[in-house]
Amino acid sequence: MTGGGGLQSLLINGGKRLSGEVWISGSKNAVLPMLAATVLFQEPCCIRACPNLTDVDAAIDILNHLGAKTMRSDGCLWVDPRPIYRWDIPDALVNRMRGSVFFAGALMARMGKCRLIQPGGCSLGKRPVNFHVDGLMALGAKPDNLDSDVFSGPLTGAQITLPYPSVGATENLILAGIGASGVTTIRNAAREPEITCLCDFLRAGGCGISGDGSLCIQVDGGLPVSAQMRVIPDRMEAATFACAAASAGGDVLIRNAEPNHFESVIRTLQAAGCQITRQDEHIRIQAGELISPGSITTEPYPGFPTDAQAPVMAALLRAKGTTMIHETVFSERMNHISGFNAMGAHVEQMGGSACIHGVDHLTGSTVTAQDLRGGAALAIAALAAHGKTTIHGLKHILRGYEDFAMKLRSLGADVRQA
Ligand code: EPU
């Protein structure tokens, strides 16, 4: 059970090496656009390995609000989109997560109308939706009046060049392109594996999409019929458990990981002294004393992922030497540093860069998660700290990690929710 249920904090008694096996769940960032995509289908569809996360709960609440029928059973989520009858989503639902923005493209495609407002989600600095709006307008969506956030179709295929390979805008425009007449071309598209997962789902329903995984994606208009698909493993959950093993030390087998999807994180941990071996879709990480891997810069895929920046920083707090980390994707994604320093780390922040001076010891403290990955990173640091750490703001972690405390406990960590 991962739901909020009044649980507010994570209590970690650190200093124990990790050992054993952990199973990686379906990817949060892959399943959220897939859930919005279900709106487009003409028949019921099924998403397998759908993770049990509060962000997924929020997407299901939106589907139910729109009129769809949803049912969870044995890790599968069934969605029957046929009864969908509305396009408006109340602010309270939109504000629950960033992934609510995908419903704009999908509803434009299915209903010819949508409302596009600033969605909720982690606070990482400015996260405008101008690429989404401009892309929809390039496809022919028109605001109802000058300042309106309500857009109406019809949509016609167009050539769109994104100013930056935004993951969310690429996914939203693929969804909208499905409802456009003719062909939509998205240039400077994001290449993340979650985009290919979304396209595979739509292709399984009969859609004509090509080029995903490259900088140029082509979408043939036409709604999908029905599909069943398994969500790809969550590469950020896998990276987080690899960082946890690196931080606490130990020998951990991460099962159902897709190592090719977080190659840059694996290479960084190897450069820091971890032994990582691949066995099909599993990776084994053996970690002892760490050294600085040098300098890290976050970039769009296949570069080093911004989502792994905080977990990797946490793993390197005790690495010998000095590590520089430059965050280039989001303007304010270093809110975890104050928590690290409260545990005895020595991290200096200079704007979007951090200089980590490796320390010998970390000590348990009381800290607060400010966002999803930053919260997981505080837990990673706490696993290596002597004594007890209380991490407030557990709700941020529950948005994106299924059974986080239970999985860490299965590796021998002393962790509980309170
Ligand atoms: N951007 C704009 N205008 C836009 C869209 C994006 O300026 O219209 C900027 C953003 O402000 C940011 C950059 O472009 O500086 C990249 O943002 P992107 O659109 O790629 O990010 P996103 O779609 O909002 C998704 C993930 C994030 C992940 C980023 C980058 C989902 C639901 N969220 O966000 O995941 O960090 O891509 O890989 O897929 C997380 O899981 O913790 C998380 C934050």
Structure description:
The chain has 418 residues and is α+β, with helices and mostly antiparallel strands. The chain contains 14 helices and 23 strands. The protein has a 4-stranded mixed sheet with strand order 21-22-1-23. β4 and β5 form a beta hairpin. The protein is elongated. The two termini are 14 Å apart. Residues 1-6 have low confidence and may be disordered. It binds uridine-diphosphate-2(N-acetylglucosaminyl) butyric acid. Uridine-diphosphate-2(N-acetylglucosaminyl) butyric acid binds at residues 29, 32, 98-99, 122, 126-132, 164, 166-169, 190, 306-307, 329-330, 372-373, 400.
In short:
This protein has 418 residues and is of the alpha+beta class. The chain is built from 14 helices and 23 strands.
Q: What are the salient characteristics of this protein?
A:
elongated, alpha+beta, 24% strand, binds uridine-diphosphate-2(N-acetylglucosaminyl) butyric acid, 418 residues, 4-stranded mixed beta sheet
Element layout with pairings:
Layout lengths: L8 E6 L3 E6 L4 H10 L7 E4 L5 H13 L2 E5 L2 E5 L10 H4 L7 H10 L1 E3 L14 H9 L3 E2 L6 E3 L6 E3 L5 H12 L4 E5 L5 H12 L3 E3 L5 E5 L7 E3 L4 H14 L1 E6 L7 H9 L3 E5 L2 E6 L7 E3 L11 H7 L6 E5 L10 H6 L3 E5 L2 E5 L8 E3 L3 H13 L2 E6 L1 H5 L5 H7 L3 E4 L1
Parallel strand pairs: 2-14, 3-13, 9-10, 17-18, 21-22
Antiparallel strand pairs: 1-22, 1-23, 3-5, 4-5, 6-8, 7-8, 10-12, 11-12, 14-16, 15-16, 18-20, 19-20
Helix pairs in contact: 1-2, 1-4, 1-7, 4-6, 5-6, 8-10, 8-12, 10-12
The protein binds uridine-diphosphate-2(N-acetylglucosaminyl) butyric acid.
